[in-house]
Specification:
It contains 21 helices and 11 strands. The chain has a 7-stranded mixed β-sheet with strand order 3-4-9-8-5-6-7, with helices on both faces. Strands 1-2 form a two-stranded antiparallel sheet. Strands 10-11 form a two-stranded antiparallel sheet. Helix 1 packs antiparallel against helix 2 and helix 13 packs across helix 15. InterPro entries: aa-tRNA-synth_I_CS (IPR001412), aa-tRNA-synth_Ic (IPR002305), Rossmann-like_a/b/a_fold (IPR014729), Trp-tRNA-ligase (IPR002306), uS15_NS1_RNA-bd_sf (IPR009068), WHEP-TRS_dom (IPR000738). Keywords: Aminoacyl-tRNA synthetase, ATP-binding, Ligase, Nucleotide-binding, Phosphoprotein, Protein biosynthesis. One of its GO terms (biological process) is tryptophanyl-tRNA aminoacylation.
Length: about 475
């Protein structure tokens, strides 16, 4: 029975075939690990080979673990095989749905796992801390191998955190704070080292700027990151333009990744074309390298087997799907990931914000007056056209940007639920909801600005100096 698939393979889409091959491969590995009878293993292997043949016949591509079929991988020219699909890649986020990207579909397409109540409860048991409101509200919604990180942690085996920022402008906006706020919480509750990559090399390659300007932006962005409250004894922030030349271990890992990823693979994952500069094509290996502890010998005492956990927005996942595919082939553990939803632009959840558009978000340099004006003028409303209609039918929190922003920054669960009920029932008007957001954001941004003023160039230098952190490995 195992010699032929139990369904008509011709009726399956390339992605469905890819998932079946992946599932069968895992089954073969499980049978071998469990020392199943030889005939059972042989039958499972024949099934796997049959599925791989069907996959190649359908797609014209050999099956490669972790790399979905090229015609379904979203690429940076904005085209997909299915026009109604959301566009999500490291450079673009587009959807026609006013509610934003369909994250349940994205989980299926990317092959990640949903962060469910069981996992959240397990994190609470492991840390002894109430889960962060980003977890409770589904802002961090998807993961890869977080259960394995918890397995190790519960067995007294440490891990480290890695996240990053592409410094494309001097001023960051409040959406850029999301991964850093959550990473800070993770670092505190698990008490682990953190490395933060500033991809100034990437921005030089993709943007119209000089190398010097990209590095300047990196140092300025570092001040905003430090202002989030990271512990200097437990955190290393580095610029690629600076650190790459100072760390042989880092460069060795880049070269190892480069050797194991073909040009066809990187084109399929990221949508590069023949006219892209070779710097873009080689960059994914640079973002992959911090996933391996041997890139930081000064922190991990040269150890190569320390697990890495990466909190990031889901659009960065293609980099780490590639990394996870390569890791076993270069003798490294696969990094685990925690994925966040996208922070919506003020104009609505259909697109990702742009640092070049000052009205697309609230920036960390904005004054209280600017914050008030932006929210009142630009925040997309889920309210009705008239007060009478709003009182009668209520507002739509699913598309209202003010409510979306409050789900990120209003920590009081009860207060958030009260606002939702009042707005949905029509009791609370759009202007009143915007007023709550203004009163939430003004002190938050002002407090950040005060902390940033205390971050001197000398403090930045200390954070960015390769050194031993307050951990023993």
């Amino acid at each position: 029975m195992a010699d032929s698939p139990n369904c008509d393979l011709k009726s399956l889409s390339p992605l469905q075939l890819f998932e079946k091959v992946t599932e069968q491969g895992e089954k073969v590995r499980a049978l071998k690990a469990g020392k199943a009878p030889k005939d059972e293993i042989d039958a499972a292997v024949r099934m796997l080979l049959s599925l791989k043949l069907s996959y190649k016949t359908t797609t014209g591509q050999d099956y490669q673990a972790g790399l979905p079929p090229k015609d379904l991988v979203l690429i940076n020219n904005g085209t997909t095989k299915e026009e109604d699909e959301d566009l999500v890649d490291p450079w673009n986020v587009q959807t026609s749905n006013a509610k934003g990207v369909d994250y349940d579909k994205l989980i299926v397409r990317f092959g990640s796992s949903k962060i469910d109540t069981d996992l959240i409860n397990r994190i609470e048991r492991a840390t002894g801390q109430k889960p962060h409101h980003f977890l409770r509200r589904g802002i961090f919604f998807s993961h890869r191998d977080m259960d394995q990180v918890l397995d190790a942690y519960e067995n007294k085996k440490s891990f480290y955190l890695y996240t990053g920022r592409g410094p494309s402008s001097q001023a960051m906006h409040v959406g850029h704070l999301i991964p850093f706020m959550f990473t800070k919480w993770l670092q505190e509750v698990f008490d682990v080292p953190l490395v933060i990559q500033l991809t100034d090399d990437e921005k030089y390659l993709w943007k119209d700027m000089t190398v010097e300007k990209a590095y300047e932006y990196a140092k300025e962005n570092a001040k905003d990151i430090i202002a989030c409250g990271f512990d200097i004894n437990k955190t290393f922030i580095f610029s690629d333009l600076d650190y790459l030349g100072a760390s042989p271990g880092f460069y060795k890992n880049i070269v190892k990744v480069q050797k194991h990823v073909t040009f066809n693979q990187v084109k399929g994952i990221f949508g590069f074309t023949d006219s892209d500069c070779i710097g873009k094509i080689s960059f994914p290996a640079i973002q992959a390298a911090p996933s391996f502890s041997s890139s930081f010998p000064q922190i991990f005492n040269g150890k190569e087997n320390i697990q890495c956990l990466i909190p990031c927005a889901i659009d960065q996942d293609p980099y780490f799907r590639m990394t996870r595919d390569v890791a076993p082939r270069i003798g490294q553990p696969k990094p685990a990931l925690l994925h966040s939803v996208f922070f919506p632009a003020l104009q609505g959840a259909q697109t990702k914000m742009s640092a070049s558009d000052p009205n697309s978000s609230i920036f960390l340099t904005d004054t209280p007056k600017q914050i008030k004006t932006k929210i009142n003028k630009h925040a997309f409303s889920g309210g009705r056209d008239t007060i009478e209609e709003h009182r009668k039918y209520g507002g739509n929190c699913d598309v209202d940007v003010s409510f979306m922003y409050l789900t990120f920054f209003l920590e009081d669960d009860d207060r958030l639920e009260q606002l939702k009920q009042a707005y949905t029932s029509g009791e609370l008007l759009t202007g009143e909801l915007k007023k709550v957001l203004i009163e939430t954001m003004q002190p938050l941004v002002a407090a950040h600005q005060e902390r940033r003023k205390q971050v001197t160039d000398e403090i930045v230098k200390q954070f960015m100096t390769p050194r031993k952190l307050a951990f023993e490995f």
